[in-house]
Design brief:
about 700 residues, alpha+beta, 3 domains, 8-stranded antiparallel β-sheet, 24 helices, 19 strands, about 15% strand
Length: about 700
């Protein structure tokens, strides 16, 4: 056992520490009732801040005592609802306007010097909600002691913000190894069965089980679970099998021996536990044990690119958006280097766990009310230096991960279902989504073969928009040396990427140029109006949208959430979606704007900025069902993995789709100047593809 493990697993010591810490918190709670207490020297808002924060920590302790004393077992469904609402109340609805988690209110109450730091601290302490449910005493103790340390610092009227920030820096730096080890084991160790135990051993007809995860629970989670409880065992089995069999076929497709793997990570939105239970059993039949870990909560584990793991509802999306860059407080070059060293050490120590890992099985959801964030100047943002350090760290971390979990030795599966928030026709949309996810693969195999055969005759493809869409793009294609046995495009059926319905390639960057435009699109849960990306030799050279009143705000929005702070990104993928059934579903129910990228990318041509679809798997030999080898896996950046690996990958991949109703023409250009029309005015015209238009005309 490592020293970090000994520290975390010494329960008796942690319980003693926690009880002692809370006595001190109670003292602070009493002291800060008075506005003239010692911390008031920094301003009248400081006693209120520490009183409110102490009050929250005492609530956590009370709930923790209820848990360890077995009182949770006596809770009724109403007790659970009340407890859940109480824990998350401060950041939900109108309460957020006067919460110290709100950067705007924090600035008003605490002043300019300390507000960002203390606002971020308050948010970090809210991670204790999930720590109490998972019984992570070490995390409860250490974060409580951070609160105490900062209070005692501020009792001294001469303490500066820099000193408070340094305390937070030291906390994340000093506890880095035990925190990282806990996260690694949560992610790869099947004996960490907190979530799996709830799923497999609860009475799923009693919806109080949802609250035992510690996540925020809304009508989405409750009604999803209720609806799944109305389905037959066969229906649940079939839904699960679509998912698990796609996962299995991914290993067959890439000729990877699944029998050498022993764990699978299942990621999902709470409410789907009845289906997840069936998925766990089906994976068990494949020799895979589930590892189900929570999406990152702490500042040190949040992901700008979305949630990875299991999660409930967002208590407040603006709250989450406001705090997405809180690691600004401690992220510097020294921290990044130390984190990489710790990861390397822990990967080596837990090499056996990593070797067992088969890859993620991801179940996405869609249908939530679109979120348009308010950009607050009072929130924390990366400096240019931090952006640089962050990108360098992510590149190195990606290389390190691939060393211990080689991409060519794992696979994945991903599928999506709607949430009740999508509207009154939720049940109909759910059933229609099942149909979309289970279309006839044999039919699509032949249609997509015809498309690929035509594309393989060209040197480049042109794509134009229609109506308000201003797209005008030329996509260069990789050269084919042996067209009789090679192809540039992968024929995507319903294996790892469900639903079926696309052919895709890694474009040749030189010669790829023009403008990509969509009038409205949702990417990673954020909305964009008139998103425009300009390409020269395959890389983004300019970009804009019309979300905000100023060009500067719009550019920053794209830089942060599409380019992820990279000055530019290449076009990593060009694909043609063929799932006109999914497109028609979107139109029929008025939910096109709510479809996730996973489905939306199949409803028209799409273009990904970032890494190729074959990131870290370029040397893995794969074939289409017709026996032709897929050869277009590289671009000028991924080739650098041989000489400058830290410049080869961007660790992001964002698909942007032009829907059929905004699409003009797609033409394939042959070397002799001849043009082969694939799509005209948003309709398929290539012989052998006419079947796809039936759904568009229905």
């Amino acid at each position: 056992m490592t020293e970090p493990e000994k520290t975390i697993q010494n329960r008796e010591l942690s319980e003693t520490r926690y009880a002692f810490d809370l006595e001190r918190v109670k003292t602070i709670w009493e002291e800060t009732k008075e506005t003239d207490c010692t911390v008031s020297v920094h301003g009248p808002g400081f006693p209120r801040y520490f009183h409110k924060t102490a009050d929250f920590l005492l609530l956590i302790y009370e709930q923790y005592q209820n848990k360890v004393q077995g009182k949770f077992e006596e809770y009724t469904l109403e007790d659970w609802k009340k407890s859940n609402q109480e824990l998350y109340a401060d950041v939900t609805g109108a309460n957020y306007e006067t919460s110290f988690a709100n950067p705007v209110y924090a600035r008003e109450a605490l002043g300019m010097e300390f507000s960002k730091t203390l606002c971020s601290l308050y948010t970090e302490l809210r991670s204790q909600i999930v720590y109490l449910f998972e019984d992570k005493l070490f995390h409860l103790c250490s974060s409580t002691e951070l609160f105490l340390e900062i209070y005692f610092l501020l009792e001294d009227g001469t303490t500066t913000e820099k000193e408070v920030r340094h305390a937070i820096y030291s906390y994340f730096s000093d506890y880095m190894e035990p925190f990282l080890e806990e996260r690694l084991k949560d992610t790869f160790d099947p004996s960490r069965n907190f979530a799996a135990d709830i799923i497999m051993n609860s009475d799923l007809s009693d919806l109080s089980y949802l609250y035992r995860f510690g996540e925020y629970i809304t009508e989405n989670e409750i009604k999803t679970a209720e609806y799944l409880n109305t389905l037959t065992e066969q229906e649940i089995h079939d839904m699960a099998f679509t998912f698990t069999d796609g996962y299995r076929r991914g290993f067959d497709l890439y000729q990877i021996d699944i029998s050498k793997k022993h764990t699978v990570n299942i990621r999902f939105h709470l409410g789907f536990e009845r289906m997840i239970r069936a998925i766990i059993k089906q994976f068990g039949a494949l020799g895979l044990k589930p590892v189900i870990y929570r999406a990152g909560i702490s500042i040190g584990e949040r992901n700008l690119r979305g949630k990875a793991g299991y999660f409930g509802a967002a208590p407040n999306k603006q709250y989450e958006y406001d705090h997405r860059m809180d690691d600004v407080l401690f992220f510097d070059k020294a921290y990044a280097d130390k984190r990489l060293q710790c990861q390397k050490h822990l990967f080596e120590h837990h090499k056996a766990l990593l070797n067992d890992f088969a890859g993620p099985a991801v179940m996405e959801t869609f249908g939530e009310v679109p979120f348009n964030p308010v950009k607050r100047k009072e929130a924390l943002y990366y400096s240019e230096k931090q952006q640089k350090w962050k990108k360098e760290y992510q590149a190195e971390a990606g290389i390190l991960t691939n060393q211990y979990i080689p991409g060519e030795e794992t696979s994945f599966s991903i599928i999506s279902y709607p949430l009740p928030e999508i509207g009154e026709k939720y049940k109909e949309i759910f059933k229609e989504t099942i149909r979309v996810n289970t279309l006839d693969q044999e039919k699509y195999l032949h249609i997509q073969n015809a498309i690929i055969d035509a594309l393989d005759l060209g040197t480049h493809v042109t794509i134009t928009g229609r109506g308000a869409n201003k797209t005008s793009l030329t996509v260069a294609l990789a050269p084919l040396k042996h067209p009789e046995k090679e192809t540039r495009f992968e024929n995507c059926l319903a294996d790892v990427n469900i639903p079926l319905g696309e052919v895709f390639t890694s474009p040749k960057l030189k010669g790829t140029e023009g403008t990509l435009h969509v009038t409205k699109v949702f990417l990673n849960d954020l909305e964009y109006h008139d998103l425009t990306l300009c390409f020269t030799d395959g890389v983004v050279t300019d970009y804009s949208c019309k979300n905000f009143s100023s060009e500067e705000e719009n550019k920053r929005y794209i830089l942060e959430n599409v380019l992820f702070h990279h000055k530019t990104l290449p076009m990593g993928e060009f694909a043609i979606g063929t799932n006109t059934t999914a497109y028609t579903m979107g139109k029929k129910y008025g939910i096109s704007h709510l479809l996730p990228i996973l489905i939306a990318e199949k409803t028209g041509p799409h273009f990904a900025v970032g890494d190729t679809c074959f990131s870290h798997e370029e040397d893995l030999v794969t074939y289409n069902p017709d026996g032709k080898q897929m050869i277009a896996k590289e671009n000028d950046f991924s080739l650098l993995r041989h000489t400058e690996p830290n410049k080869a990958y961007f660790n992001c991949h964002t698909d942007i789709t032009i829907p059929y109703d905004e699409l003009g023409d797609i033409l394939i250009h042959k070397e002799n100047g001849e043009k082969i029309p694939l799509i005209r005015d948003g309709r398929f015209v290539l012989p052998g593809t006419e079947e796809l238009n039936k759904a568009l005309l229905s």
